Amino acid sequence: MNLNEIFGKGKKPQEVINLLKKKSVSVPEWEKLRRSYEPNRHKIVRDYRGRPNVTYSDGTIQKATRYRFGLEKLLVSRMTGFMFAIPVKRVYQQPEGMTEEQKEMFKQITKSIEKVYKLAYIDSENRDRGRQYFASCEIFTLWYTTNSPHQMYGFPSQYKFKCKTYSPMDGNTKLYPLFDGDDLIAMSIAYSRTEDNQTVSYFETYTKDKHYKWHTEAKGWVEDKPEDITLFGKIPGIYMYRPEPIYGEDLDYIRENIEYKMSENSDTISDNASPLLASVGEITGLEKRSDSKRSVKLSNGGDLKYVTWDQGIDAMKFHTETMMDTYFMLAQLPNISASKMMQLSNVSYESRQMLFADAHMKVGDEAGSWQKAFAREFNLVKRFVGMANEQWREMLETIECDHVITPFIQEDKKSKVGMLMDANGGKAVMSQKTSIQYLDMVDDVEAEIKQIEEEEAASPKQTGFESMFTSKVE
């Protein structure tokens, strides 16, 4: 189906919207995914047949324990952290055969592009949309301009370039992409909001040259005046989807098993924690001697003692830890909880790299989809910069950029410096000025270097004769 068929003359708004809602990709519904993602929606919360409350003869009710483990949320957070805790780095490809003037322009352009990304808070946006993508399976990041004169991009501009990500996770948004083969030809967003104590539904559609918008009134859907999209020549955003979340149905069973076993064990401990008083023979009397001392009379051969429960917790602990380790193993992510990390003690940088090898391979599997999206997004940013500064348009068309996603690992800078010095034959890899800047413990680096030089100049230098008495005796 093409756009001419959808927006044909004589079609009512409801007919057009129904056609745009025919989703051309298969994505799980968020309401179904929430049953796993939200701990309060887990099966154990409302399973009164498998985990019934106990009513005693006196009418008291003992509620069954219902532990909920938000492993799905944890998994999404961990995956997002491994992908974007280290910000995505953009490496620009400089065209060959450039003059010095062109090289200077290239430097200014790339610097301005970085400011566009920075002022759009792209690092924070990547973490937010990473969480939404891995949890709800689809996102749409819309880029738009606002009329606000400024010079923060390195040149006078009448507009600011911003972005906003939509996903079904807020419970109020639905996305409807329309593809023609591999090309996204229309992107629709459905949402609602409260206005004057009434809920108004909206439906917006973006194509390469138009922005359509409808809203509901008492008589039904009403179309607003379409807006032209002249800036980009393409849909001003990126859409990403996946067939299943980062947590899958296979992992649901393991998490559910942990919840039920832990809850059952909790009830068992509650029932048997208090000791029982067991008697052998007949109790013939009870004499109270004082507030704190009592005596019990038993028949011949009688005995009285407390019986405590010898709980076997090792099997339960082994089962739970095995299930938890299996969960993260199948998710292809390490369990980096504080308790697990404390068990590692002081391991080397190379050992940590091996520990996170599985997670880094997982990031490699996911990185391809993101890099494609980042490339499309980069083209949008280039077109905006070209519109804001027409002198750069020709060169902007020749600039390419690689987006480098670096999997997270806790760095050992000492080991890294040692490795680099071994590679270059023991030579320095950083100047004194750079090292002071990197340390980030002084406000004025230049003043600090001057102070160091003055102190070195003021300190007495040893002569050859004096060094004989201060040198180390072999």
Could you walk me through the main structural features you see in this protein, from its secondary elements to its overall organization?
The chain has 474 residues and is of the alpha+beta class. Helix content is 43%, strand content 23%. It contains 17 helices and 17 strands. The protein has helices at 3-6, 13-20, 30-37, 43-46, 71-84, 100-119, 122-136, 249-272, 313-331, 338-344, 349-355, 357-388, 393-396, 413-423, 432-439, 445-458, 464-470, and strands spanning 54-55, 61-62, 89-93, 138-150, 157-166, 173-180, 183-195, 198-206, 210-217, 220-223, 227-228, 237-241, 276-280, 283-288, 294-298, 303-307, 400-404. The strands form six sheets. Strands 6, 7, 8, 9, 10 and 11 form a six-stranded antiparallel β-sheet that branches. A three-stranded antiparallel β-sheet has the order 5-4-12, with helices on one face. Strand 14 (283-288) and strand 15 (294-298) form a beta hairpin. The longest helix is centred in the last third of the chain and has 32 residues, at 357-388. It is flat and about 110 Å long. 19% of the residues are buried. The model has no long low-confidence stretch (mean pLDDT 85).
